[in-house]
Write a sequence for this structure.
C-alpha cells in the first residue's frame, strides 16, 4: 500500500533469490508485520501483531533512512498488545493508528506519546484508514456487522470521527468494510465480507456499488492516478472507464497478499505460497512485464510468511512478514523486514571494489559513455530491480552504449573493477 516501512533489532543478514539480494534488516520478537505506510522514500512505519493474541510483542517500528535501520515504538503505545491494522502519518510527527481491538490513537510527537481519538465504537474491529493529503479529510473502515457502523469520516485530522450514514441500498455497506483509498473526490471502499466495491465520486456525499468477480476478500485498494485504482484480492484488478467496470490485471499462480504502487508504472506484489514458496514480483511498465524473486525460508526457520510490501523509490523495495521457529520446546515468532539490494553484488564486495569508472552524461537520454575501462573487461547494466539489461565487452578504455529504448529511471553499472549508477531521463 502507499502505507509503506530499527536500533532495537536482532542484527541478521541473509541473501535470497537467484542473483538478486534480499537482506533481513529487521527481526523483532513476537512480531507479525501485516502492513506498512511510507511518508516518503526515507520515513516509514511497519506494523501488525498476532491476531487473536494478547501476548506482548512488537507492534510498531519506524525507519528514517529508507529501511536500513529501524526503531521499535511498541513500548510507547497506549495499547501495546493490540494488533495494529492501519496507520496514516501526515508528517513525521503527526499520525493516527487503528487496531483490530477497537482503538484509534493519534500522536503529535512521532509516536512518543499517544491519545485516544473520539467518536468511534469501543467494540470496533478497525481494518483500514486513509486520508486525502490535500484536505486531510479521512475515512476509517470497521468490520462490525452492525448497521451504520462500518464507515467513519474525519475532518479533524483523525482526532474526532463521525459515522457515514448516506449509504447505497446494500446491506453489506452497513455491515462491514475492508480496504479504503482516496484520490481527490474519488473514494473507494471494499466490502469486508464479500466482493462489493463501494465508490463515491463526490467525496463521500453519494455512493454506488459494483461487484467485481474476485476469488477472495480484498487485501489492498490503491489509486495510481486520479481515476484509476488497483484492487488486490488474490490477484490484481484494475478499473476501466468507471468504478463499475473491473478487469483482471495480473494473475499470479500464488496468492497475492500485499501490493504497493510507487506510481503509474512501478508496482510490486508479494505472495504467500506456503512456507517455502514466497515471491516478490515487480513491474516497471504498468504490468506489461514482471520480474519475479523468491524469498526462501532460512534453514534455521520452520516457515516464513510475507504480508506486506513497500515500493518507496526506484530500486528501494521492502517486504514485511513473519517467521516461525521451534527453539527449546517453544515456538519463536518474529516480525521480519527484508530490503532489496539493487546492486547485484554484496555490500562486502561493493566496499572492496573501487568505484572509479566514469559515466557521462549523467543523467543521459540517448547514449552514455562509460570510461576508465580496461580492454577485455565486462560491463553490465542492470535496472533498479537487478535485472540485467545490457552486457558489453570493452574493446577500448571507453565504450558508448545506446540507451534510447530504456525507460526513465535509475540504472546500475558493474564492471570487473568498479560499480556506478546512471539516471536515464
Amino acid at each position: 500500500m502507499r502505507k509503506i516501512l530499527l536500533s532495537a533489532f536482532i542484527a541478521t543478514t541473509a541473501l535470497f533469490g537467484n542473483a538478486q539480494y534480499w537482506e533481513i534488516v529487521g527481526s523483532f520478537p513476537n512480531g507479525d508485520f501485516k502492513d506498512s505506510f511510507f511518508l516518503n522514500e526515507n520515513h516509514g512505519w511497519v506494523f501488525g501483531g498476532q491476531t487473536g493474541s494478547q501476548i506482548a510483542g512488537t507492534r510498531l517500528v519506524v525507519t528514517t533512512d529508507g529501511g536500513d535501520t529501524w526503531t521499535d515504538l511498541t513500548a510507547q503505545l497506549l495499547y501495546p498488545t493490540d494488533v495494529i491494522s492501519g496507520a496514516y502519518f501526515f508528517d513525521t510527527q503527526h499520525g493516527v493508528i487503528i487496531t483490530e481491538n477497537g482503538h484509534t490513537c493519534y500522536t503529535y510527537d512521532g509516536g512518543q506519546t499517544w491519545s485516544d481519538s473520539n467518536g468511534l465504537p469501543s467494540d470496533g474491529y478497525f481494518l483500514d484508514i486513509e486520508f486525502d493529503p490535500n484536505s486531510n479529510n479521512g475515512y476509517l473502515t470497521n468490520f462490525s456487522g452492525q448497521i451504520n457502523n462500518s464507515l467513519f469520516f474525519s475532518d479533524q485530522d483523525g482526532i474526532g470521527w463521525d459515522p457515514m450514514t448516506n449509504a447505497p441500498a446494500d446491506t453489506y455497506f452497513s455491515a462491514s468494510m475492508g480496504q479504503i483509498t482516496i484520490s481527490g473526490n474519488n473514494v473507494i471502499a471494499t466490502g469486508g465480507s464479500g466482493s462489493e466495491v463501494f465508490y463515491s465520486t463526490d467525496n463521500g456525499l453519494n455512493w454506488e456499488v459494483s461487484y467485481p468477480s474476485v476469488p477472495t476478500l480484498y487485501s489492498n485498494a490503491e489509486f495510481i492516478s486520479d481515476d484509476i485504482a488497483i484492487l488486490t484480492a488474490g490477484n490484481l484488478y484494475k478499473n476501466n472507464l468507471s468504478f463499475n467496470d473491473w478487469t483482471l490485471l495480473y494473475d499470479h499462480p500464488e496468492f497475492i497478499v500485499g501490493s504497493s504502487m510507487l506510481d503509474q508504472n512501478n508496482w510490486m506484489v508479494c505472495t504467500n505460497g506456503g512456507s517455502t514458496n514466497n515471491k516478490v514480483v515487480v513491474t516497471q511498465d504498468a504490468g506489461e512485464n514482471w520480474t519475479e524473486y523468491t524469498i526462501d525460508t532460512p534453514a534455521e526457520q520452520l516457515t516464513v510468511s510475507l504480508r506486506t510490501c513497500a515500493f518507496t523509490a526506484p530500486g528501494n523495495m521492502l517486504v514485511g512478514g513473519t517467521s516461525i521457529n521451534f527453539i527449546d520446546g517453544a515456538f519463536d515468532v518474529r516480525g521480519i523486514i527484508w530490503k532489496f539490494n539493487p546492486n547485484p553484488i554484496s555490500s562486502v564486495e561493493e566496499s572492496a571494489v573501487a568505484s572509479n569508472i566514469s559515466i557521462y552524461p549523467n543523467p543521459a537520454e540517448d547514449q552514455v559513455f562509460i570510461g576508465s575501462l580496461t580492454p577485455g573487461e565486462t560491463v553490465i547494466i542492470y535496472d533498479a530491480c537487478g535485472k540485467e539489461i545490457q552486457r558489453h565487452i570493452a574493446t577500448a578504455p571507453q565504450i558508448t552504449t545506446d540507451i534510447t529504448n530504456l525507460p526513465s529511471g535509475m540504472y546500475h553499472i558493474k564492471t570487473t573493477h568498479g560499480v556506478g549508477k546512471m539516471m536515464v531521463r
Observations:
- The chain has two helices and 35 strands.
- The chain has a mean pLDDT of 82.
